[in-house]
Design a protein that fits this description.
By secondary structure, this protein is an alpha+beta fold. The protein folds into two domains: about 55 residues, no CATH class; about 70 residues, Roll (SH3 type barrels). Helix content is about 35%, strand content about 30%. It has four helices and eight strands, in the order ααααββββββββ. The protein has a five-stranded antiparallel sheet. The protein has a three-stranded antiparallel sheet with strand order 1-2-3, with no helix packed on it. Strand 7 and strand 8 form a beta hairpin. The longest helix is centred in the first third of the chain and has 16 residues.
């Protein structure tokens, strides 16, 4: 009985160690080497080309609230109120326009008319334009 157990244990060890380790080694080799680690040193890498192109492109200018305010294409000359109805008098340089509700010029959007000011939006900035040209960041 004891000899049978010892023989079974020895046979199981022999079977376990006689498995084709080359198959296991090939699977591990695929995991270790993906082909990206080695490259031809005589050919310029596409990653390096993309980095160089990014460096060559000029950075986009940072837009500040002062830039938005300076480029404002119109002024608020006044507001006419009658109950809840409001009309803004917008000076666009060569003429005065009467605006009720929404108005847009050169990317500047007048989105709301209030009692003594209008709300203007441009490139992510919202600000209050008061009568006479005073601007408050909102």
């Amino acid at each position: 009985m004891n000899k049978k157990i010892i023989i079974l244990v020895i046979l199981s060890f022999v079977l376990i160690f006689s498995l084709p380790f080359s198959v296991l080694a090939e699977e591990n080799e695929k995991d270790l080497y993906s082909g990206k680690e080695f490259r031809n040193p005589f050919v310029e890498s596409p990653v390096i080309q993309v980095e160089r192109e990014a460096e060559e492109r000029p950075a986009e200018p940072v837009i500040t609230f002062a830039d938005i305010r300076r480029e404002l294409p119109f002024n608020l000359d006044g507001i006419i109120s009658s109950g809840t109805d409001r009309i803004a008098l917008i000076d666009v340089g060569d003429r005065v326009e009467l605006v009720r509700g929404y108005y847009s010029k050169d990317g500047y959007e007048l989105i709301s008319i209030e009692r003594d000011s209008v709300i203007v939006r441009n490139r992510g900035f919202r600000f209050r334009l008061k009568i006479g040209g005073e601007v408050d960041e909102r």
